[in-house]
Amino acid sequence: MVAEIRALEDNVTWTLEPLPLGFIQSQADHSLFTLITHARITIVLIYVDDFLVAGNDTSQIDVFKSILSTNFKTKDLGSLKYFLGLEVTRYQKGIFLNQRKYTLDILIDSGQLGARTAQFPMEQI
């Protein structure tokens, strides 16, 4: 991987951009970055060319998006609805996550959308 990135840099095909000041990369998940200042937190999750930006201070998020847009072509898709196959619905008391669309796509692709269901007993708790 290092050799491939070095080749891209040598060919001036790509340049590595440093993290914005203050962001720390997670040791558990290298695609997760956090910025914590006082009581404010900004969280950035990166998957290939998709970014999920969340936090408790919109001005800090806006600063991050501004820095990002000066270095890259960006498109703000607004509030989170879908990310990596997860559908996100926000409610007053919390957040609901599901994979309904992903599941339907699998059923359609495999030709099983019209299949009959099978009943099976569930263990009583």
Automatic annotation (TrEMBL):
InterPro entries with a match to the protein in the record: DNA/RNA_pol_sf, RVT_2
Limits of the Reverse transcriptase Ty1/copia-type domain: 21-123
Name this protein carries in UniProt: Reverse transcriptase Ty1/copia-type domain-containing protein
Organism: Juglans regia (English walnut)
